[in-house]
Amino acid sequence: MTRTKLVLGLSVAALISAAAIGGVAVAANARSEKGERDEIAAVNGARVSLAQAVAIAERQGSGKAMEVSFDDESGRNWEVEIVSGDRVATYAVDAASGDVSAVAEEVDEANEGPKDND
């Protein structure tokens, strides 16, 4: 009798845990879907297309586009990575105006030789 109660108690606890985890997953999925819908609406409302943003960034950086994405944090910029020589620069192109609003740059460390780790 005690063993049956223990097995039944563990089964109930497992079901409750599974339901709680499932509830969290459903809530996270709903937030994710809302975020994706918001991003789709922002892209659809952008006056500057992805292709236009790439062209703007390539002219600005005098290079070729390597990667592009829509900045889902601000919801108003295309982020375009441009390769020029051994440098990669990230340009934020305003999706409404086409203005370049921010630039980040990094050097290709693979071609700089071995590092001295003193």
How many structural domains are formed by the residues? 2
Number of helices: 2
Could you give the count of β-strands? 4
Assembly status: single chain
Helix and strand sequence: HHEEEE
Q: From the alpha-carbon coordinates, what is the Rg to the nearest angstrom?
A: 25 Å
- Share in helix: 40-55%
Mean pLDDT, nearest integer? 76
Name of the CATH first level of the largest domain = Alpha Beta
**Stretches where pLDDT falls below 50 for ≥5 residues?**
none
Largest sheet: 4 strands, antiparallel
Query: What's the architecture of the largest domain, going by CATH?
Result: Roll
Q: Give the termini distance in whole angstroms.
A: 68 Å
Report on the architecture of this protein:
It contains two helices and four strands. It has a four-stranded antiparallel β-sheet with strand order 1-2-3-4, with helices on one face. It has helices at residues 2-44, 50-61, and strands spanning 64-70, 77-84, 87-94, 100-107. It is globular, with a radius of gyration of 25 Å. It has two domains: 1-44; 47-110, Nuclear Transport Factor 2, Chain: A (Roll). With 118 residues, it is of the alpha+beta class. It starts with a helix and ends in an 11-residue tail after the last strand. The model has no long low-confidence stretch (mean pLDDT 76). Strand 2 (77-84) and strand 3 (87-94) form a beta hairpin.
